[in-house]
Amino acid sequence: MSFLAKEKKKNEWVEWLKAIIIAVILAFIIRNFLFATSIVEGDSMDPTLENGERVIFNKFVYFIGDPERGDIVIIQRPQKNYVKRVIGLPGEKIEIKDHNLFINDEQYEQPFLTEESKNHTGNFGPIEVPKDSYFVMGDHRAISKDSRNGLGFITEEEIIGKSELIIYPFTDFARTK
After folding, report:
1. Which of 84, 117, 133, 144 is catalytic?
2. Active-site residue among 38, 44, 133, 147?
């Protein structure tokens, strides 16, 4: 083998090594700062998200903006992560009466709920969301552990991302609403 052939083979290995290192660094950055996956555990977000579905969540979106009403968010708590929908924003008054949600004394329509879920939303409040927190609920109101009954208010630091896409099972591949 000539010197030029050896040098060419060496350069080819170096280029492959560079490509692999760049790919690993990009994967690390994407996984830790932009997007990650989470598995939905339980039926509290049914029918929007079902038990066992895997979702991609956007970690970057809340670096440049705040959570909005209706966002499906991933909440990180020491014991486990939760997937819930943002209902009340900082400083708002939340009340549920006669199965209807009121935000600042105005009825709020919830098109993402089934009739059954709407009819199983008991009375709650009124309660004011602290200035540094959010009020969240699951879409399956009858069984959801949320801001009404166990999770309490959620701080912005606990919200680690916004659910963007169902990726598994493949038959459910879709954007989350």
Report:
1. 84
2. 44
Q: Which domain holds residue 63?
A: 37-175
Per-residue pLDDT tens for 28-66? 877 766 677 778 888 888 888 888 888 888 888 888 899
Q: Is there a domain that residue 2 lies in?
A: no
- Would residue 18 count as lying in a domain? no
Residue 58 backbone phi and psi in degrees, to 5: -90, 115
Residue 16's pLDDT is what? 87
Question: Could you confirm whether 163 is annotated as catalytic?
Answer: no
Q: How does pLDDT run across 15-27, given as a tens digit for each residue? A: 888 889 999 988 8
What's the number of domains the chain is made of? Answer: 1
Q: What is the 3-state secondary structure (H, E, C) of the chain?
A: CCHHHHHHHHHHHHHHHHHHHHHHHHHHHHHHHHEEEEECCCCCCCCCCCCCCEEEEECCHHHHCCCCCCCEEEEECCCCEEEEEEEECCCCEEEEECCEEEECCEEECCCCCCHHHHCCCCCEEEEECCCCEEEEECCCCCCCCCCCCCCCCEEHHHEEEEEEEEEECHHHCEECC
Q: pTM above the 0.70 mark?
A: yes
Evaluate whether residue 124 is within a structural domain: yes
For the question of residue 84 being annotated catalytic, the response is yes
